[in-house]
Amino acid sequence: MRVLIIVVAALATLGLAAFGVVAAQRAVQPASAVVAAQAVKPAVAVLAAPVREKLAQPSIQAAVVAPAAIAPKPVAAAVAAPAAAAEPTRLAQNSAASNASATAGAALANATPPGSHAAANNALACDKPGAMGLARVVQIDTTGGPAFGFEHFKQYDFLREHEVVLTFDDGPWPENTPAVLKALADQCLKATFFEIGEHATWHPEISKMVAAAGMTIGSHTWSHKDLARNPYASDIEQAKQEIEMGVSAVHAAVDGPIAPFFRFPDLQQPPVLLAYLAQRNIATFSTDIDSFDFKMRRPEQVIKSVLSKLEKRGKGIVLMHDFQHATAEAMPELLRQLQAAGFKVVHMVPKAPVTTIAKYDDMLRAQDKMSANNTRPENSVVRTISGN
Ligand SMILES: [Zn+2]
Question: How far is the CA of 217 from the centre of ligand 1 (A)?
Fold first, then answer.
């Protein structure tokens, strides 16, 4: 009996020790060291992986491997404990922020840089039983403008089998974008939104909601022009303006950091503009799986399109549109079916935010219909002098 108690106590200690070791690793390891296999792909680093997967293996090993080897490690556990204990506080703040006002959320987003490890660990937290939750957060180093999406670019293949990245284009848009955000939040998921500059100018409060919900926001030009056609194809200055006004407008709408992530309208990607984006250190995202949801009216069609293509390919960056009503409607069921089919969602974050160019920020301000001259109240400027 006594022997049994000792064995049970020893196993319990080992379990705690293993937990501490994992916590310590999570707390101190640099992103590049977390997954060595990613080292050959410099553009992508794994920021965080789920705790439950990591916990399971070391615990089992600890129970089987010689106890003496594990014994000193509770020290590491004790050291790591405060860092691990600090997490839930930040998580609580984060989940509160998604319900709070857009302004408060944006302020929080500023306090926790989107590409930071703290933000990545927060992103993995999920307080909803049975929800999908994120499988991983990957950090994209956009230096030199790496391009992703197997439809056009095949160098970087960072997803594992059954992993998906969810991306949404053409927002922000009333009703549909908030519906997509809610469906994602209900499953503790995050996605990347490629917003159109003009739309962000019309609905900045929705861009702020997207940011406050912890999503990654990239841009998708100023007014959704096909940049492979004239006048853009023959005039790079006009094409640059279309790209940069989009960056400046989305940045202004969010009123905080956005990602140096860009998607070309209609996936038309002229080489000269890819070279320009490379020089701007902005990553280009094509797609692995194009849902063609913009051609669909019914949510069931969107679900079928995404799932059948994913099942064929096994994994991928999925292109959808938060601008589309059918997609917004499809999201809750689509996510349920993805989970049932064993797919896991990976979230992309940038290593550093995009920098806007002052010239285009100024152009954006010039677009503004409001004039700085109009400071006097209307009734002192315009007066009825005849009639009623
Ligand atoms: Zn689009």
Answer: 14
Other CB atoms within 10 Å distance of the CB of residue 271 = 7
Give the environment of ion ligand 1: residues with CB less than 5 A: 169-170, 265
Instruction: For 110-124, write each residue's pLDDT tens digit.
Output: 445 555 677 677 778
Report CA(9)–ligand 1 centroid distance (Å).
59
pTM of the model: 0.71
Fold of 114-367: TIM Barrel (3.20.20)
Distance 316 CA to ligand 1 centre (A): 18
Task: State in Å: Cα 268 to ligand 1 middle.
Answer: 10
pLDDT in tens, 316-331: 999 999 999 999 999 9
- Placement of tokens 């954006």 in the chain: 364
309 Cα: distance to centroid of ligand 1 (angstroms)? 20
Residue 31 is encoded by which pair of tokens?
């992103």
> How many angstroms is it from 199 CA to the middle of ligand 1?
11
Q: What separation in Å is there between the alpha carbon of 220 and the centre of ligand 1?
A: 7
Place of tokens 């999406």: 149
Nearest to 334 by CA among 364, 373, 306: 306
In sequence order, the 6+-apart residues with CB closer than 8 A to the CB of 206 are 171, 172, 173, 174, 177, 178
Domain boundaries, the chain: 114-367
d(CA 231, ligand 1 centre) in Å? 19
> Nearest to residue 348, comparing CAs of 149, 141, 157, 191?
191
Query: Buried (b) or exposed (e) across 181-210, using 16+ Cβ within 10 A?
Result: bebbbebbbbbbbbbbbbbbbebbebbbbb
Q: How far is the CA of 224 from the centre of ligand 1 (A)?
A: 6
DSSP category for residue 382:
-
